[in-house]
Amino acid sequence: MALLEMRKVYIIGDKDLGESVVKKLGELALFQPGEIKEETFTSSFKKENLETKYLEDNLSRLSWTIDYLKEFDEKKAGLGFFPSKIIIKEEEFLSWIKDFDWEKVCKSSQKLKEELETLKEEKETLQETYHFLYPWRELSFSCQRFQERKFVAYQWGTIPLETKDTLQKELEKEKGTHLDIIKEEGGTAYFLLIFLKECQARIESILQKSKVEKIEFKEEGSPKEKLKKIEQRTSQLEKRAGEIEKESRKAFREKIKLMTVYDYFYHLLQEKKVSAETRSTPYTFLIGGWIKKVDLAKLKKGLKDLSPLEIVVREPAKKEEEKIPVALSNRGIFKPFELVIDLYGLPRYFEIDPTPFLAPFFALFLAICLTDGGYGIILSILAWLALRKLKAGETAKKLFSMLFITGFVTFGIGIITGGIFGIEFSRLPPFLAPLKQLALLNPVKQPMIFLLICLALGIVHILVGIGLELWDALRKKDIASALLVHASWILLILGGILILSPTVIGTFLGAGQSGASETGLAGSNTPISLSPGNIKNIWSALPGYSKLGLIMSLWGVGTLFLFVGRKSKSLFMRFAKGGYELYGIVQVFADVLSYSRLLALGLATSVIAMVVNTIAATMGKTPFIGPVLMVIILIGGHLGNLVLNCLSGFIHTARLQFVEFFGKFYEGGGESFKPFRREGKYTAIEGEKIARI
């Protein structure tokens, strides 16, 4: 349950072996190539420039063709969140790489796409013309006949119906005008206006005031004839588009072959990029990178047939921590929770892996957000089905496995809080009576107790975070920080818990009042005296664990104040840093209160579940369809409640880890170990390990 040890590896050999070594490294999938900057090696080794443009061009053409043909997939797409790769046999892979004419398919697809785009553009143009001419569809003569003459002018146009009468009245005042209303449709009047050219200026003014939209017919032929031709041409275009789609669907059958060829070129490109990282002399080559320590023997065994080779291994140095790739090593129930670390950021190589410490808190907090035992059962079942039925990638498997585990924890929390699908245990039938004995708390009826439990868990969570920081300081041999800072914070918080416990508070108040009475300061508005005698009385009244808590807190405060700034030469700066560190007590209180969100989400889930049951019961009384409505509401309501609260619970639980927990000890920023391997974007060869897919 830690980070795997890494080693820096240099492989040196005969220059003629360079290409073979790179290919073998891809097959072994153990080695992550890296930059070579050590002067001892690079003084005589030079970097080679390798041509990759032809591979990139081929990949671009294949990618475009695959994306184009995907549009003609007749099968319904499955869940696109977790795409899986297509498994092919090795003999198929070799055959398609050798014999499949992928360039012909790419050229054909390009031609079909271009023709389809041309047809689409022409159809859009025709549709615009059609919509323009359609209101004039009853005209069986060419509108071009009505052109401007020596004494007469013509104007086609449209006008809103509400201003048509006004226009007619204005035109009646003008001599030598004729307004012909062709059609009234959709709140618009379509007209032809004939008028004397000598009146054109006045007519133009009238048309402008009446909000007339002028129409100009640029082409010969009647609107009726042109509409018919457009319909005929549109039909021809649609027919040809259908033929193109049919040809494209036929080409889609070659999709897997295209994907296989794509992955072939993709791997060649990766090999070229790895080769570009090598250094060489006229006779030798050098490649450097990272490998897991446990895989060193496998690497040497895999390369033993390629000789002569020299493999140089060294341990990573602290100064290169940012460049050292990280490989998590968690097993069993802890491994799925690596997903949370992936979301935040991997640890650096010399940092603690927080996964095993995060896992129990994450599962518990998410379970508290869901609260309901029935939801836990459903969550585990759905996650199990997803793991069994979906061909999911590594990330999806981690997510479903984490939800599967959380479902069991949620079921346990639901039993303790006495709720299954929003039904309180007190309302369960007699044969389920034993479950009533297991219910210890009702969050809806006892919210304050539930809140105190959430805050207590938050304190434990924070203490674990500070404890990990202490441990990390000890690992780095920073004993002073471990004992004087981190241990002091733990003492301060634990001491505060003892002091602020309900029993201690009650005892403190009682003692204070007693002491006040004895000193003559009793009264609701009279402050407690801090005289030596009264302090002695208060101290005497405190139980032993409260005295211990007070001593622990004072020790923690004093140590932090005096030693946090121990590295400063100025006494003032030492005390200033100490005082600022003590201001963190306020932040600790704020962090603890953040865990109240668990109460809010847990109550929300419970209350919504009960509301769903109430609505379902009410609708169930509806005659005839009542039972059907009740079932629909119960299934839809509870499933929706589960999904929404699972999502919000995941987000808020992650927030508690990222801010309150990680803020105490964890930085992150590591880079994942990604060994060079023979892998593709779309396909995987049968027999390869799933981890390589």
> Number of DSSP strands?
18
Quaternary arrangement of the chains shown?
single chain
- N-to-C CA distance: 25 Å
Low-confidence stretches: 504-526, 689-693
Radius of gyration: 40 Å
Largest sheet: 6 strands, antiparallel
Residues in helices, as a percent range: 55-70%
Stated plainly, the CATH topology of one domain is called: Alpha-Beta Plaits
Helix/strand layout:
Blueprint: E1 2-3, E2 6-14, H1 18-28, E3 31-33, H2 39-42, E4 46-47, H3 53-70, E5 86-88, H4 90-99, H5 102-133, E6 152-160, H6 164-172, E7 177-185, E8 188-196, H7 200-209, E9 213-215, H8 223-252, H9 255-276, E10 279-280, E11 284-292, H10 296-303, E12 309-314, E13 325-326, E14 328-329, H11 338-344, H12 355-370, H13 373-389, H14 394-417, E15 419-420, E16 423-424, H15 433-438, H16 447-475, H17 479-499, H18 502-518, H19 532-541, H20 544-563, H21 571-582, H22 584-594, H23 596-619, H24 626-665, E17 671-672, E18 683-685
Parallel strand pairs: 5-18, 13-17
Antiparallel strand pairs: 1-14, 2-11, 2-12, 3-11, 4-10, 6-8, 6-9, 7-8, 10-11, 15-16
Features of the shown structure:
693 residues; alpha+beta; Alpha-Beta Plaits; six-stranded antiparallel beta sheet; four-stranded antiparallel beta sheet; 24 helices; 11% strand; extended; disordered C terminus; V-ATPase_116kDa_su; membrane
